[in-house]
Design a protein that fits this description.
Blueprint (H helix, E strand, L loop, with lengths): L5 E3 H8 L3 H17 L8 E3 H9 L4 H8 L3
Antiparallel strand pairs: 1-2
Helix pairs in contact: 1-2
Length: about 70
């Protein structure tokens, strides 16, 4: 599954150690945030890169340098 662009609800629930209904709630909130930026979303799925940015703070090395001056 790691090669797929989107994470499904079961994968989100497993990754975070939460229930499937709560994972749906999180995905709805994240998709709402993405829609505000003009992105098209799919119910019950979330962009893998966006998910990791929101939950783990992962960013590209270039973005890190710009935001805090170090890698």
């Amino acid at each position: 599954m790691a090669g797929e662009i989107f994470m499904r609800v079961n994968e989100v629930a497993e990754e975070l150690g939460v229930s499937v209904p709560y994972a749906y709630k999180l995905i709805r909130e994240l998709n709402k945030e993405l829609r505000k930026t003009g992105c098209i979303t799919i119910a019950g799925r979330i962009d893998r890169k966006f998910f990791h940015e929101k939950f783990y703070g992962t960013r590209e090395p270039k973005e890190r340098r710009e935001s805090n001056g170090s890698v």
